[in-house]
């Protein structure tokens, strides 16, 4: 390791928005095409590669992580007209493969992205079969850009019917009966909007298979704000069109419904809910003809209402299942079980752990609790469609927990039993662990829960510990198969995941308690988790590592600048770190509802109070830091990590050979899905960096 870092010249760039003095000495690192930025990045690459390459026991780490990541996976089936569609990834495959199971039981491969693109850069983003099960719309993207291209294939022959249709990022597809047309979401042509708005301006369109997509019929979205996101769905008989929308990532939903029974394919949409009401709502018209609405209206933990779709306004909703003060309502599915009245399967989470119950569809009365495999997460809950004659009394569940790779269970109403349908092919590679959920107090006295994984027979004394979290955008961190956690515990360490405010583990109020002016509470919850682990003897500050990505990268960035003495090492991946200028890059403007905007004086003050880049102290002993970024990231700009890296390398008083500050870059990969091989490579670097720093693995 050299005695000094690559030179990054500091400028005297100072701005005074709303009277606040904001220094930005590394503004020049925002432009990746600047020759100075390119040269600096190449020097950082050489430095990081040399350091990571020399970390001890890399081959052993790679082998363990590879085995855990190559357990494979299988998804719960989606039923259409007797056919079931599902994905499966074998132990030696880089990506899941899409299959169809015929009514006869024969299984056929439909789509393998590695056959479309042997380079491993293409991912399958979404897929949707038609009601008849004879056509499939699917979306793929390449190089991590998430710019989904939509295709349609014939399920029987596997032959392509059309595509690609571009500008379909994050698009849902709602097929009309017959499979000739579908509703979907597509951005308008880029030449029609300002250059800095080309990632926005989504619309709902009606498309006929085989026709020119530029001749699609506009259905909805022209008069709304350009940041609106939409999703579309249809009732099983095709009678009702539902359009959900929200401005960006804001938790404020709009809902529209349209009657298609008169044959109009571009009907008048009736607004049911307006985003100005500030609540969430998701609706389905089920086979019984009623509209079921999951909403936070007057219920921050969620309640289930029912309405006649002819009279869909909230004033005409009837509460079917009330809010539960101890759990969060996730979703429901209508079940036409043979030989009994229709039932509703209702999925909740209690302190981030899934619970499933069966209710009378007419009255909402609780009939029974559905047995689940353990303390974990139901990732998917499906029932058969109205065209499928078998399996009407069954619920198919996608399942995972900390030690179980994604697998499938099935629950039978008739027998009241939940049985395994298919396990991941490589599950035997998973080590034995103990999992505990404990409680601790945050700085303001709020009780926060935390999952802790440890060896089945832990050694005596404090252990190297990896603490992670997210705490934002109402995203809940539930028990899920986590290879890096299992590898850490298998090596003799402890892994911990607190349910921070800003997430939705305790409902919408929990989310709001950690957003905007309350963001500091998220960091306080995280610091308190670290202190609790130390006080209870799990670890010490010299053995404590932290990691987080995206909004979780902001979390650990704030943690290391606020409490550098508390943490020994940090992995900060795809992070937001310059909270004054985040709105100016990529999708940043969508997140002002969550964080606040620098355009507003009061909100700028919130942002400056914790913005990691702006709160780096001179001559401070910072932890070892590995900033990890993806050059094709289309959500969070890598400029955040570049600027933070330069600022930390300048400010830290820690010697580079003991507590280095490094920048790890990847190309042709983005914020989301990646191949197993690339996942193993990144996980190895992260694991080895933190393990060496905390003493989990020594030279």
Automatic annotation (TrEMBL):
E.C. numbers: 3.4.21.26
Pfam name, any one: Peptidase_S9
Hydrolase keyword on record: yes
Catalytic reactions on record: Hydrolysis of Pro-|-Xaa >> Ala-|-Xaa in oligopeptides
Q: Which keywords, in A-to-Z order, does the entry hold?
A: Hydrolase, Protease, Serine protease
What GO MF annotations does this protein's record show? oligopeptidase activity; serine-type endopeptidase activity
Q: Which residues form a coiled coil?
A: none
Tell me the PROSITE patterns matching this sequence: PRO_ENDOPEP_SER (PS00708)
Q: Which InterPro entries match?
A: AB_hydrolase_fold, Pept_S9_AS, Pept_S9A_N, Peptidase_S9_cat, Peptidase_S9A, Prolyl_oligopep/macrocyclase
Give yes or no: UniProt keyword Protease: yes
Taxonomy, superkingdom: Bacteria
Sequence ranges assigned to domain Peptidase S9 prolyl oligopeptidase catalytic in this UniProt record? 486-695
Q: Name one GO cellular component term.
A: cytosol
| GO terms (BP aspect) | proteolysis
EC class (word): hydrolase
Domain Peptidase S9A N-terminal: where?
6-422
In terms of PANTHER family, this protein maps to:
PROLYL ENDOPEPTIDASE
The family classification in the record reads: Belongs to the peptidase S9A family.
* Protein name per its UniProtKB record: prolyl oligopeptidase
């Amino acid at each position: 390791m050299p005695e000094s870092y690559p030179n990054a010249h500091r400028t005297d760039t100072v701005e005074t928005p709303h009277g606040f003095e904001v220094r930005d000495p590394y503004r020049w690192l925002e432009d990746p095409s600047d020759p100075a930025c390119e040269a600096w990045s190449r020097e950082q690459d050489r430095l990081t590669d040399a350091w990571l390459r020399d970390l001890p026991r890399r081959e052993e780490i790679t082998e363990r992580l590879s085995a855990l990541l190559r357990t494979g996976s299988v998804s719960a089936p989606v039923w259409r007209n007797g056919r079931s569609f599902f994905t499966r990834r074998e132990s030696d495959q880089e990506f899941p493969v899409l299959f169809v199971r015929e009514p006869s039981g024969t299984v056929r491969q439909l789509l393998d992205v590695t056959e479309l693109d042997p380079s491993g850069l293409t991912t399958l983003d979404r897929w949707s079969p038609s009601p008849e099960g004879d056509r499939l719309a699917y979306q793929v993207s390449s190089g991590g850009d998430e710019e989904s291209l939509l295709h349609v294939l014939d399920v029987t022959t596997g032959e392509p019917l059309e595509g690609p249709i571009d500008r379909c990022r994050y698009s849902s597809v709602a097929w009309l009966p017959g499979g000739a047309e579908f509703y979907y979401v597509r951005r308008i042509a880029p030449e029609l909007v300002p250059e800095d708005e080309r990632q926005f301006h989504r619309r709902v369109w009606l498309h006929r298979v085989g026709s020119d997509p530029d001749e699609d019929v506009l259905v909805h979205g022209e008069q709304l704000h350009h940041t609106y996101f939409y999703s579309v769905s249809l009732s099983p008989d095709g009678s009702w069109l539902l359009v959900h929308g929200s401005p960006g990532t804001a938790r404020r939903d709009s809902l529209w419904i349209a009657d298609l029974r008169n044959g109009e394919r571009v009907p008048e949409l009736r607004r049911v809910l307006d985003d100005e009401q500030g609540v969430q709502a998701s609706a389905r018209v089920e086979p019984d003809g009623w509209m079921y609405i999951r909403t936070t209206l007057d219920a921050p933990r969620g309640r289930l209402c029912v309405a006649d779709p002819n009279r869909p306004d909230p004033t005409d909703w009837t509460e079917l299942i009330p809010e539960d003060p101890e759990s969060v309502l996730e979703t429901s599915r209508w079940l036409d079980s043979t030989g009994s009245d229709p039932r509703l399967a209702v999925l909740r989470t209690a302190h981030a752990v899934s619970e499933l119950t069966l209710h009378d569809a007419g009255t909402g009365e609780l009939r029974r609790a559905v047995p689940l495999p353990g303390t974990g997460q139901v990732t998917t809950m499906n029932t058969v469609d109205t065209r499928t004659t078998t399996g009407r009394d069954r619920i198919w569940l996608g399942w995972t927990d900390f030690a179980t790779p994604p697998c499938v269970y099935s629950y039978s109403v008739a027998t009241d039993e939940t049985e395994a349908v298919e396990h991941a092919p490589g599950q035997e590679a998973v080590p034995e662990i103990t999992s505990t959920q404990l409680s601790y107090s945050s700085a303001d006295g709020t009780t926060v829960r935390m999952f802790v994984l440890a060896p089945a027979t832990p050694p005596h004394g404090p252990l190297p510990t990896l603490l992670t979290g997210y705490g934002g955008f109402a995203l809940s961190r539930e028990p899920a198969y986590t290879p890096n956690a299992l590898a850490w515990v298998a090596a003799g360490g402890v892994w911990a995941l607190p349910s921070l405010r800003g997430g939705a583990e305790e409902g919408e109020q929990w989310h709001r308690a950690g957003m905007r002016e309350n963001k500091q509470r998220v960091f306080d919850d995280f610091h308190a988790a670290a202190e609790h682990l130390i006080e209870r003897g799990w670890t010490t500050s010299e053995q404590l590592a932290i990691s987080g990505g995206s909004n979780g990268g902001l979390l650990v960035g704030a943690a290391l600048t606020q409490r550098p003495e508390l943490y020994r090492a940090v992995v900060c991946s795809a992070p937001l770190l310059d909270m004054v200028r985040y709105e100016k890059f990529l999708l940043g403007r969508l997140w002002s509802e969550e964080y606040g905007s620098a355009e507003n004086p009061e909100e700028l003050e919130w942002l400056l109070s914790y913005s990691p880049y702006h709160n780096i102290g001179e001559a401070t002993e910072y932890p070892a830091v590995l900033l990890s970024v993806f050059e094709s990231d289309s959500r969070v700009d890598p400029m955040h990590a570049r600027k933070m890296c330069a600022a930390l390398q300048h400010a830290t008083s820690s010697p580079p050979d003991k507590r280095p500050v490094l920048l790890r870059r990847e190309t042709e990969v983005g914020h989301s899905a990646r191949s197993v091989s690339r996942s193993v490579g990144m996980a190895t670097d992260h694991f080895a960096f933190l393990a060496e720093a905390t003493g989990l693995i020594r030279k």
